[in-house]
Amino acid sequence: MRAARLAATMVAVAIGFAVSAAPTRADDIEAKVQLCAACHGESGIPNDPKTVPVIWGQQQSYLVKQLHDYRSGDRENPVMSAIAKGLAQEDLRKIAAYFAAKPWPAGHPSAAPASAPNGVAQCQPCHQPKFDGGMPAPRLAGLSYEYLVASMRAFATDERTNNLDMPKFMRALTDSERDAIARYLAAF
Ligand code: HEC
Ligand code: HEC
What we know:
mainly alpha, Cytochrome Bc1 Complex, Chain D, domain 2, 2 domains, 10 helices, binds heme C
């Protein structure tokens, strides 16, 4: 497990170097985002949706903030931190705009459960009635159950601290409430 993690970090660092070595012309975003597809998918469906979130069609302001946070260490992840550090500061907004303009990948044949689970209504003022996000909250609908439940747990346990409200909301829910909400949102 540890070796796999180290290998992933090394790949990410190598990719990071490749990115910073690339020319920094403003019209070159298309070339710079090529490497993102290795994990986030050629057509927007991540290679491993359980651990890699969808970024196609995600809210632009949220994408910019996450790239900033990975660079600064406010959000910690060995793979994404290395990659974000390899990006030029002035490219972050353009890269976010590039992915935000793509369509959210279709899929998810399963219908959302008829009844909304306990606690999910309180997410809607920020994440919007259809959970498709809006400034500054990200889209949640259609992220994988595994990614959602892991991010919710990371906020609850203070592993992810790049927002002041989310930890509070996530701590107020039990494990099984978070589980039910994640299942609901993944199928939404
Ligand atoms: C080696 C695989 C890999 C590559 C290449 C990669 N990512 Fe990621 N990305 C991940 C993983 C894994 C996560 C989830 C990390 C976490 O849990 O914090 C992630 C998360 C993100 C997030 C946060 C999304 C959210 O919903 O919170 C953004 C934004 C992002 N990546 C952008 C990019 C961009 C832009 C590129 C290309 C410059 C890129 N990634 C390349 C694996 C990768
Ligand atoms: C007060 C507004 C607010 C409320 C209420 C709220 N959120 Fe959030 N949520 C946010 C913001 C803002 C972010 C982005 C944090 C960051 O910068 O990383 C976020 C991030 C998230 C993420 C991370 C998504 C990703 O791609 O990594 C998940 C999952 C999430 N919220 C789930 C929920 C759920 C479930 C509820 C309801 C139980 C909820 N939130 C209620 C504002 C809110």
